[in-house]
Structure formats: C-alpha cells, structure tokens
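Troubleshooting entry. The earlier prediction with 4'-phosphopantetheine gave an output that would not parse, so I re-checked the input for stray whitespace and re-submitted. Clean input:
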Amino acid sequence: MDVVIYPGSFDPVTNGHRDIIDRASKVFPKVIVSVLDNPRKAPMFTREERVEMLKLVVKDYPNVEVDSFQGLLVDYAKKKNSKVILKGLRPMGDFEFEFQMAITNRQLDPELETLFMATTNRYSYISSSVVKEVALFGGDISELVPPEIYEFVKKKIVNV
Ligand code: PNS
C-alpha cells in the first residue's frame, strides 16, 4: 500500500481537508491529493486555482503530491498505481453517499479499496459550501480555511 489517493472537489480546500491530509501523511508513505476536474460541474474556483491552493497547503509535506483528474476515479487510481482511496467522513450526512460511491467503485474495480478517516471533531461541521456561503455574505472564514489560502479565497469572492 504505497500510494493513497485523496480525491475531492476542494472548492476550496478547508481546514477539514487539511486535517485529513495531515493525518494521512503520517499513515501512508505517499498521499496524492487529487482535484476532480468535472466539466459538468461549475465550481467557484477553477481547477488551476484549486490545485494552486492545495499546493500552498501541502508545501511542507514531502510525501504529499497535488494532482487533478477527469473521468472515473477507478481509472485514475489505476493510472497512479494506487489500490487505496481515502475519504474523510463527517458525522452529518456523508455516510449514505460515501457508502454508495465506495460500493460503486468496488463494483467497477474489485481491487480498489476505499478507506474512511473520521474527521476531527472541531472540523466536523466544515464544508466547502459553508466556506463559500459565509465568505459570500462577508462572514469571517478564518476558522474554516487554512491560513495559506485565506486571502486567496477572500480575493476571489470579492471578484465574483
Ligand atoms: O469533494 P467531493 O465533491 O465530495 O468529491 C467527490 C469525488 C470527486 C470523490 C467523486 O465525485 C468522484 O470520485 N468523481 C469521479 C467520477 C467517478 O469515478 N464516479 C463514480 C463513483 S460514484
């Protein structure tokens, strides 16, 4: 189990994501944080911006790499020679959808395992949607996003 993939939209990366990345980097030899580039979705931040923000957040982690992917996660995992997908699990509402995705991915590739890491309690309420909502209406997001990307997010929201 050399490489684990931590996939997501990261629109934008939050303190919850950062916490999972930090803990994963201590458990797995190599972590690839990969941004879904979905042409059918309209994210607030471009793929390039989301990758840039993640790179700022993981700059001090030598075993964490940032990448992006299109298409099926199982195909991407194969391309990266990874047999493990990592997902963060929050106590409110994540379970059903994550379970469905894990089973779908296993049906598509029985060799690929999905592992779940429970979020740290103090970050369990945070989501990218909450960050965008609070920032759009002028609220303080300093507790919600890593300090490295705070200005990046504020600037983007002002320009929306
Ligand atoms: O941060 P998100 O939006 O919850 O991440 C969802 C993500 C990117 C992990 C998921 O949408 C995904 O894996 N998409 C790739 C397409 C795919 O493989 N779909 C089949 C599994 S349902």
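This one parsed fine. Residues 38 and 71 are 8 Å apart (CA to CA).
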